[in-house]
Amino acid sequence: MPIPQFITVEGPIGIGKTSLSRAINQRYGYHLLQEIVEENPFLGRFYDNIEEWSFQTEMFFLCNRYKQLADISNLHLKQGHSVVSDYNIFKNTIFAQRTLQKAELDKYLKIYDILTSDMPQSTLIIHLSASVETIMQRIAKRGREIENNIDRNYIRNLSDDYELFFERHRYLHPDVPILQLDGDQLDFVERSEDLEYVFRMIEETMNKEQFEHA
User: Fold this and answer.
1) What is the rounded distance in angstroms from the CA atom of residue 74 to the CA atom of residue 76?
2) Is 203 exposed, middle or buried (0-12, 13-18, 19+ CB in 10 A)?
3) What does pTM read for this prediction?
4) Where does the Deoxynucleoside kinase domain lie (predicted)?
5) 20, 76, 102, 159: which sits with the fewest CB atoms below 10 Å from its CB?
6) Does domain 6-210 have CATH number 3.40.250.10?
7) What positions carry a catalytic annotation?
8) What is the largest CA-CA distance in the chain?
9) Average pLDDT of the chain, as a whole number
10) Would you call 2 helix, strand, or coil by DSSP?
11) Cα 144 to the chain's mean position, in Å?
């Protein structure tokens, strides 16, 4: 039996993480894990006033992602079934360090370390990046009401945070392959040839034998 794979797709808001995760699910038959976003009762208020609502927002995401990952670990990965997710749990630290004050951040990171100490680790991380202009266009295109007030500077800072994080991650975890894809050049939602290119890049990054239906 092939070793179960755990692919996580990451990048800033609106970059296409869910679309690509769904495409991988359909192509390879992996179980699809999608993060809970619109169900977060604090998210709309967070975009209106980041400083006031950041801790509640980040704690909601952390607790829900912890429960999701515990479930997929027990119900799928430990049973030999591969999984693709439209987020990686480490994103919590990226957002928290951007939005939380030091006292709250210290508390948050302690809770994060406890909850994630035995979480499943990715066998491949796909990092989607793009310019602020492209990201803002895609956010507008998907038309989520709670995202109407997202600030361009917030997206710019978040994109920079992701780039810095992945630089450190490559250094600290050289055994975990990271596939970076340029969202300014690729539109795997609208262009089928771009999606096929992405699949080829995934298969070249990992062993093709691993891409059997889970």
Assistant:
1) 6
2) middle
3) 0.90
4) 7-205
5) 102
6) no
7) 86
8) 50
9) 91
10) coil
11) 18
